[in-house]
């Protein structure tokens, strides 16, 4: 497989649940090792990736004769590119070969992997299969996401019906549809060899199954070998012009009411009998009425402008579209005991963070921006607009914001275990992070970045990924925070430039520092540095070993075959996997390559982390960031920048929610 195809086989993280490969090896018959059936099974499965990617995302085939004959099928989700289709099917086919060692029938259509691969010793082409059926759900209750559950279920049902209908009406090459209604996102697909009626039966069976077992949860999927349905409260597919859109408002009546028609007819019939005096009275009355209406509108407009005067700037910035997330100042003051010092979790460059408890007992973290901070105000607007669009278990969740008087407040979920740097770089607390926990943190951060780069509604570059911006919940699940410097990219945009370079020394990619160029590969570089910090237990800004900085030391030991010298001494005597440590160092070095073109995508990174069988390219000499002075001198030599406003020196991020 070439380097371009070493890309993640799981480009979306279903419901924030840990990625696993789920296959169903059916016990309908077995074959012996090295038998004709076994050889045919392996041959046809390994041929599927090329055939399905070159045939529009769906392919049926058979091979062999008699008892050795094997039937196989592959189907990619309707929004996958040809290359992604190849990658997903290739991964899934090889997993079936290794997992279903002697079963004559198996399939995989897992929620984490957007493709179907199926084989059997009997023909199943065009045959509806409703068993086996499997489902997965997001365990969060739907009542936590909406205040009107009854209305939500009504909208949900209408959307499922509309998407199922559209999918079943597809062609013999594609039976796939997506839909959006308010915050609800839905996707359905059948194998295209099914008839329209069979596809409709299959999808509606899944909807009924989900309704019976799981409707009260915030998202999930149900699937059989013939069809699948999935829904969630965030966008997990690529919307197209064919995506079904439903709204709460009912369409207007196509024809005027009967009473209106009769009135019109009456006026028409009696028109001739109206006297000139009556007409004059009617005209005068209309003029007076219009004048009164105009006067009322002007008064209401003035009152509205006066009432909203304090929030005008914020509304111009687009925050008025997020009214559902607004908290009242009095409720936030009550939750934080009027921003009591006892509730302060920490203080940064833009403001202080307080712990609070709402009336329903829910714990929150409140970021209170300093008044008069122009930069803080810009960061505030940017963070609200970005984070309001994001929902993923590896991103800190924005619960709301408050704009009253001169207060600017951000309300987040409370994360009890502080930020990663408070544990990782503390010599007393660091031993609490065993290797399995560190590997879980590395993988979780990678999935969060993958969501930002590929799977969220917008392509987002974080631009300030570092240990203080990784929060840890009670289960040590990492959550990326601080989106104040994040940038939204267009669907086809790959990079951008800035005249104001801001970030933290050591984590910033060389092309960003020297030329102001940033892209998703800038985040990949920061992630590589973070991996090496997590493995070594040392900050990149403080690490020195015989005069070598962290990247130099890691590269030198990698080249000499002694890369485990980088591993934190607290891990060396433990039970952690040495192969995982070595592989993680390898990935870290790939991420910090000098040229952004040589760095892997987050797709590839996650695949390399979850699948040890994936081969990886050898790293070359990484970019070295020996000191902040060197970086400053390099960047300051560029005439394209205003040196007085060029750098933000390791400022405390406004989303750092650190308990004391």
From TrEMBL:
PANTHER family: CYSTEINE-RICH RECEPTOR-LIKE PROTEIN KINASE 27-RELATED (PTHR27002:SF1104), RECEPTOR-LIKE SERINE/THREONINE-PROTEIN KINASE SD1-8 (PTHR27002). It is a single-pass membrane protein. Residues 339-589 form the Protein kinase domain. Keywords: ATP-binding, Glycoprotein, Kinase, Membrane, Nucleotide-binding, Phosphoprotein, Receptor, Repeat, Serine/threonine-protein kinase, Signal, Transferase, Transmembrane, Transmembrane helix. The chain crosses the membrane at residues 279-300. It comes from the Eukaryota. InterPro entries: GNK2, GNK2_sf, Kinase-like_dom_sf, Prot_kinase_dom, Protein_kinase_ATP_BS, Ser-Thr/Tyr_kinase_cat_dom, Ser/Thr_kinase_AS. Residues 247-267 are annotated as: Disordered. It is found in: Membrane. Its main location: membrane. It holds the Pfam family PK_Tyr_Ser-Thr. Residues 1-22 form the signal peptide. This is Cysteine-rich RLK (RECEPTOR-like protein kinase) 14. ATP binds at residue 367. One of its GO terms (molecular function) is protein serine/threonine kinase activity. Residues 247-259 have a biased composition (Low complexity).
């Amino acid at each position: 497989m070439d380097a371009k195809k070493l890309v993640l086989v799981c480009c979306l993280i279903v419901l924030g649940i840990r990625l696993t490969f789920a296959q169903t090896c059916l016990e309908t018959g077995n074959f012996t090792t090295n038998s004709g059936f076994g050889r045919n099974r392996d041959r046809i499965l390994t041929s599927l990736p090329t055939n399905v990617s070159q045939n529009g995302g769906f392919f049926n085939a058979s091979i062999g004769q008699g008892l050795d004959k094997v039937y196989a099928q592959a189907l990619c989700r309707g929004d996958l590119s040809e290359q992604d289709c190849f990658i997903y099917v290739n991964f899934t086919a090889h997993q079936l070969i290794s997992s279903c060692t002697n079963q004559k029938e198996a399939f995989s259509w897992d929620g984490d992997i957007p493709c179907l691969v199926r084989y059997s010793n009997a023909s199943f082409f065009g045959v509806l299969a409703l068993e086996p059926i499997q489902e997965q759900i997001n365990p969060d209750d739907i009542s936590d996401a909406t205040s009107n559950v009854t209305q939500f279920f009504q909208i949900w049902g209408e959307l499922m019906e509309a998407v199922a209908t559209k999918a079943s009406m597809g062609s013999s090459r594609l039976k796939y549809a997506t839909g959006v209604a308010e915050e609800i996102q839905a996707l359905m697909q059948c194998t295209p060899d099914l008839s329209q009626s069979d596809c409709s039966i299959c999808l509606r069976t899944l909807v009924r199954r989900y309704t019976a077992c799981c409707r009260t949860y915030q998202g999930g999927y149900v699937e059989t070998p013939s069809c699948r349905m999935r829904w969630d409260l965030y966008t997990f597919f690529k919307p197209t012009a064919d995506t079904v859109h439903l709204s709460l408002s009912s369409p207007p009546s196509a024809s005027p009411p009967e009473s209106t028609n009769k009135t019109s007819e009456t006026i028409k019939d009696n028109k001739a009998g109206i006297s000139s005096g009556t007409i004059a009275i009617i005209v005068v009355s209309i003029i007076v009425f219009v004048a009164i209406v105009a006067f009322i509108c002007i008064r209401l407009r003035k009152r509205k402008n006066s009432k909203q005067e304090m929030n005008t700037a914020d509304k111009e910035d687009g925050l008025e579209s997020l009214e559902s997330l607004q908290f009242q100042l009095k409720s936030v003051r009550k939750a934080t005991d009027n921003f009591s010092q006892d509730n302060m979790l920490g203080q940064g460059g833009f403001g202080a963070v307080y712990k609070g408890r709402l009336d329903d007992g829910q714990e929150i973290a409140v970021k209170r921006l300093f008044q008069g901070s122009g930069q803080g105000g810009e960061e505030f607007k940017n963070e609200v607009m970005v984070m309001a669009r994001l929902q993923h278990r590896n991103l800190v969740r924005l619960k709301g914001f408050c704009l009253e008087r001169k207060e600017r407040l951000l309300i987040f979920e409370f994360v009890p275990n502080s930020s990663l740097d408070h544990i990782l770089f503390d010599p007393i607390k660091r031993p609490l992070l065993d290797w399995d926990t560190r590997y879980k943190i590395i993988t979780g951060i990678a999935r969060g970045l993958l969501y930002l780069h590929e799977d969220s509604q917008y392509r987002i570059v974080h631009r300030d990924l570092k240990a203080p911006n990784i929060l840890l919940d009670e289960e040590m699940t990492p959550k990326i925070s601080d989106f104040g410097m994040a940038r939204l990219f267009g669907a086809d945009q790959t990079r951008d430039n800035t005249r104001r370079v801001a970030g933290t020394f050591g984590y910033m990619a060389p092309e960003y520092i020297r030329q102001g160029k940033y892209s998703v590969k800038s985040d990949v570089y920061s992630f590589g540095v973070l991996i090496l910090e997590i493995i070594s237990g040392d900050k990149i800004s403080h690490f020195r070993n015989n005069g070598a900085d962290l990247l130099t030391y890691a590269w030198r030991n990698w080249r000499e075959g002694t890369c485990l010298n980088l591993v934190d001494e607290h891990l060396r005597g433990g039970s952690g996997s040495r192969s995982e440590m070595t592989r993680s160092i390898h990935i870290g070095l790939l991420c910090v390559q000098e040229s952004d073109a040589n760095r892997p995508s987050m797709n590839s990174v996650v695949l390399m982390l979850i699948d040890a069988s994936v081969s990886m390219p050898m790293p070359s000499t990484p970019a070295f960031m020996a000191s902040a002075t060197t970086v400053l001198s390099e960047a300051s030599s560029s005439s394209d920048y205003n040196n007085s406003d060029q750098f933000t020196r390791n400022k405390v991020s406004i989303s750092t929610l650190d308990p004391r």
